[in-house]
Design a protein that fits this description.
With about 130 residues, this protein is mostly helical. The protein has one domain. The protein has 4 helices and 3 strands; from the N terminus they run αααβββα. Helix 1 packs antiparallel against helix 2, helix 1 crosses helix 3 and helix 2 packs across helix 3. It is globular and about 50 Å long. It starts with 5 loop residues before the first helix and ends in a 6-residue tail after the last helix.
Length: about 130
């Protein structure tokens, strides 16, 4: 059996992290999972063109899925920190960098790492 390449490892990890966040928000329906798969396919091509970007894949997949959900049904993930005011979505930071986190810009806080949103929203923490 051939070892799994760093690219495939990064893509599988990104998929798992984003799926964990979707499951925590109870939005991991089949059509949304398909959005994740579409993003993974696109990001595979992107990293093949720019191998140094492999560390950025998880944040980019999270952003891709967030954008796709916004186009289809609305904001995701909604901020669990701000209890008052207009509902608003968290954003991924850094936009292009390693160790992506969900951030609330209104409160100015990191809410959770991508993949660990369940621990911030009272859902199931990742195992």
């Amino acid at each position: 059996m051939d070892p799994i390449s760093p690219l495939e490892q990064a893509l599988h990890a990104a998929r798992a992290l984003v799926l964990a966040d979707l499951a925590a928000g109870e939005v991991a329906a089949a059509d949304v999972v398909s959005m994740v798969e579409d993003s993974v396919v696109q990001r595979r091509w992107w990293v093949e063109q720019w191998p140094e970007g492999v560390a950025f894949v998880a944040g980019l997949v999270a952003q891709d899925v967030q954008d796709a959900i916004l186009e289809r049904s609305g904001r995701w993930p909604l901020c669990p920190v701000c209890g008052t005011g207009q509902p608003h979505a968290l954003e991924v930071e850094p936009e292009l960098g390693p160790d992506p986190h969900w951030v609330c810009h209104e409160a100015g806080v990191k809410v959770a790492a991508v993949g660990a949103l369940g621990s911030a929203t009272g859902g199931t923490p990742p195992s």
